[in-house]
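Q: What does the predicted 3D structure of NB-ARC domain-containing protein look like?
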Amino acid sequence: MGGGRTLIIIELLMDIEEPVWKRLYSAAKSCIMSGSKMIIVSRSDKVASFGTTEPLRLQFLTQEAYWYFFKVRSFGSTRAEDHPKLTSMAMEMANLTSGCFMSGNIFSGILKANFNPHFWSMALAAIRGLKQRNISVYGDRFTNPWQMVEPTYLRRVDKTFSECVVILLDYSYIINCEVQRPHRMVKSNKRFQKSSG
């Protein structure tokens, strides 16, 4: 580890049993210098008991704070008030992305690069379509596409293709995607419904 004090950050994708954690902690502790720190990042409350200090719990931004983040990312130094049509579309996009930083970063970055109302309208239509398509597949279980356990279906930009881009796994800004034809979407959804029924 280089001989100096070390900062180790461990991100747990799922729950970990306490004996497994103790073995991992013991192995890491034997390799690092005194004064080193270890941070565990997890969505699980169970992990809080493994730490030696009070856990720091991160909360979602309020709707107002998320809108501010989305607006600043989308408009940059340009005053949003000077572009009421774009501001209206950006507000709806911020609302549809459900406070998700990943989708907020993606869409606001795309919008900032092209200050054209037609382009922003296409981006808004894409987000609406994503939500409608997945609500038709999953029903009320579909709330935030970036926190779904099941695959999320996105329509390709070029509408001459019938395939969809499918997000199969999402965790901490890492996603696994593939292109599927609609009949495969339906089959995989039926298979999911049978296994979860």
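A (community wiki): The structure tokens above were generated from the sequence. Residues 81 and 94 are 16 Å apart (CA to CA). The beta strands are 7-11, 37-41, 152-155, 164-171, 174-180.
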